UniProtKB/TrEMBL annotation:
InterPro entries: Sbt_1
Source organism, top-level taxon: Bacteria
Pfam assignment, any one: Sbt_1
Membrane spanning residue stretches: 6-27, 39-55, 67-87, 94-113, 133-153, 173-193, 205-226, 238-262, 268-286, 298-322
Protein name per Swiss-Prot or TrEMBL: Putative sodium-dependent bicarbonate transporter
Length: 332
């Protein structure tokens, strides 16, 4: 791994704004982002990447590479939480193991966006259809996590906490972030198919504003991540180690799958980042509602306070190095 690649990533404006946000908390600055703005920017980023992804999918079509890649993405989001659950069961009960495993089986859209920015800074090409993989990988892990609780939890669990399949599916596919991302993907696809002039009209909103909005959102994420750091002491060394080991392990599996799929380096990195990232929005929302026995301080503090900054600052360059090392090897 080249040190220059790490430095270029760390010195990129989005990462710098993330660090500035974190430092403001550590030095007790009174910097504060009004509550509605991070939510607004989060929705904007999902809308923009979904719209642009739909356009790119329409342009590329459902080729022999697109469909296997999307299928592999779904498969990974089903397998990763199962592996995580088996590891976590050495230390935690069923509820906490399932909730944490689901968080690490799902994805982080902001980490994905940061990986796109990294690729653009390195002038490495990637395809827009990878946004489809992003949209498809968020929900399956939630379903797996809830099914693990349903089948592995003690039989004497209170009836008031029994889960119904319809509620699981509703939360998995119709939570706000998934719904907006999928909807924007469809809008982008239909716009590119039937009304190309709409793309030009949307460009100032979804294109030129995007980088600045990403920086501002990461400034807030840095503040929130730093605020979560003190809670990590409650997680214990096992979970702290898991928060670093699991992304690296998932990245290694991801790069092997990317090599099997013959993905180009840019697409391979995005696929690996999706495998290595962890959810701190959709999964916690689902778990708080359906698995109240699990401690939210475990799966939120580790994903947001440790795994997210690790991936943003160091993980992406490490994964790029993995891609550059393993992808060029002879076919599997």
């Amino acid at each position: 791994m080249e040190i220059n690649t790490i430095l270029q990533n760390v010195l990129a404006p989005p990462v710098l704004f993330f660090l500035i946000g974190a430092i403001s908390v550590l030095f007790k600055s009174d910097l504060e982002i009004p509550a509605p703005l991070p939510k607004l920017f989060s929705l904007y980023l999902l809308l923009a990447i979904g719209f642009k992804g739909g356009i790119e999918i329409q342009k590329s079509g459902f080729t022999d590479q697109v469909l296997p890649t999307l299928s592999a993405a779904i498969l990974m989001s089903l397998i990763i939480p199962l592996i995580g659950f088996l590891i976590l069961r050495f230390k935690f009960d069923v509820f906490n193991s399932a909730a944490i495993a689901a968080a690490y089986g799902s994805i982080s859209a902001v980490t994905f966006i940061s990986a796109e920015s990294f690729l653009e800074s390195q002038k490495i090409a990637f395809d827009g259809f990878m946004v489809g993989a992003l949209a498809l990988m968020e929900s399956p892990a939630i379903i797996v996590g809830l099914l693990l609780v349903k089948f592995a939890a003690p039989k004497n669990r209170p009836k008031s906490r029994k889960m119904h399949l319809s509620a699981i599916l509703h939360e998995s596919f119709l939570n706000g972030s998934v719904y907006l991302l999928l909807s924007s993907l469809i809008v982008g696809f239909l716009t590119a198919s039937s009304n190309p002039s709409g793309i030009t009209k949307m460009e100032p909103f979804t294109g030129q504003l995007f980088y600045g909005a990403e920086c501002f959102f990461l400034l807030d994420m840095g503040i929130v991540a730093a605020q979560r750091l003190p809670r990590l002491k409650n997680a214990g060394s096992f979970l702290i180690g898991f928060a670093i080991f699991m992304p690296l392990f998932n990245a290694f599996i991801g790069v092997l799958v990317a090599r099997f799929l013959s993905l180009e380096p840019g697409n391979a990195l995005l696929f690996v980042v999706l495998c290595a990232s962890a959810s701190y929005l959709a999964v916690p929302a689902a778990m708080r509602m359906t698995v109240p026995e699990a401690k939210s301080s475990y799966y939120i503090s580790t994903t947001l306070g440790l795994t997210f900054p690790f991936n943003i600052v160091l993980g992406i360059p490490i994964y790029m190095s993995l891609v550059n090392t393993i992808i060029p090897l002879s076919p599997l």
